Amino acid sequence: MRRLAILLLWCGLAWPLRAQVVDTWAFSSPMVQEQALAVAAKIRCPQCQNQNLLESNAPAAVAMRHEVFAMTEQGKTESEIMSFMTARYGNFVRYQPALEASTLVLWGLPPLLLALIGIVLWRGRSKL
């Protein structure tokens, strides 16, 4: 038992420690903070891909988050910030890309597939 405890202690000490990024930002008002956090939650981290800017500690996400916070402090609206981020990083950073010719398949395919499944199910029931 003592050997197991020593082994576990040694493994715990040998495990590489990772430093966490501590993000401190002083907002001018709670309303500005709320707006900045709401915008940052709608932007995807380009490195992590499944996390928004608030969830990710990747260096790219930290830089983007600070950029969003600074733009919010400057009085920019959500649409202005989203337009800037989309122009700089592409449509990928938006969780809900705008309806454009390039994203038409992305928006149109789910309703089309749902309608197709409904038709197949309806036709299958009518044959019974």
TrEMBL record:
Top-level taxon of origin: Bacteria
Gene Ontology annotations of biological process type: cytochrome complex assembly
Keywords: Heme, Iron, Membrane, Metal-binding, Signal, Transmembrane, Transmembrane helix
A single GO molecular function term of this UniProt record: metal ion binding
TM spans (from-to): 104-122
One of the record's GO cellular component terms: plasma membrane
InterPro entries referenced in this protein's UniProt entry, alphabetically: C-type_cytochrome_biogenesis (IPR051263), CcmH/CycL/Ccl2/NrfF_N (IPR005616), CcmH/CycL/NrfF/Ccl2_sf (IPR038297)
Signal peptide: 1-19
Gene3D superfamilies: Cytochrome C biogenesis protein (1.10.8.640)
Sequence similarity: Belongs to the CcmH/CycL/Ccl2/NrfF family.
Protein name, as recorded: Cytochrome c-type biogenesis protein
